[in-house]
Design brief:
With about 180 residues, the chain is an alpha+beta fold. The chain has four helices and six strands, in the order H-H-H-E-E-E-E-E-E-H. Strands 1-2-3-4-5-6 form a six-stranded antiparallel sheet, sandwiched between helices. The C terminus is likely disordered.
């Protein structure tokens, strides 16, 4: 449809408009020194190089940073990736998922009671969750370089995020101590 390869289309239509300068599809056999190697197990040194395609595709495989995830949320919600009315349609909860304790929209998880959007992923040697509270401009991202590595941290901080947002709602300020960009 675009005349581009998948990687070219994602770069042109998502990464560039969003200003994601540290996100991209890096070949697993030529990782730069500052890219985290993915490990299959939490212990040991078995890398994921032979467990994934050499170059990531639509089902995963992009490398990113916590800063770029915050930038993604800002660009997405500001309409720099898709139109704002499309953002509203994509993030509207459509299903309750009791087994996950969340609601689901179109490609996004949504907090069960708050305006918090969630993206998460898992693959051989990678795990992550990024939560964004648009009202407060707060992004909390946990990135792990093992298949299970991020999940214990995600579980530990989920309650802290809820408590911080509850406090912010009560006092009318962003969560205490956070470096927060207020929505425009």
């Amino acid at each position: 449809m675009t005349g581009d390869t998948y990687h070219e289309a994602v770069t042109r239509l998502v990464l560039e408009p969003a200003g994601l300068t540290r996100t991209g599809f890096l070949p697993l056999n030529e990782l730069p020194a500052d890219a985290a190697v993915g490990y299959i197990h939490d212990e040991g040194d078995l890398a994921n190089t032979l467990h994934l395609p050499v170059l990531g595709n639509a089902d995963g495989g992009a490398f990113t940073t916590a800063d770029d995830l915050h930038q993604f949320w800002t660009a997405f919600l500001d309409g720099r990736i898709v139109a704002v009315d499309t953002v509203a349609a994509m993030t509207r909860p459509r299903h309750d998922v009791p087994g996950e304790g969340l609601r689901y929209a179109m490609g996004f998880w949504v907090h069960p009671t708050r305006d918090v959007l969630i993206l998460e992923g898992y693959d051989a040697g990678a795990s992550f969750r990024s939560s964004h509270a648009p009202v407060h401009g707060l992004t909390l991202s946990v990135l792990g370089n093992s298949s299970e590595g991020a999940w214990p941290v995600i579980g530990a901080v989920a309650g802290l995020l809820d408590a911080a947002l509850q406090h912010a709602d009560e006092v009318g300020d962003p969560p205490s101590g956070a470096d927060v960009d207020r929505p425009r």
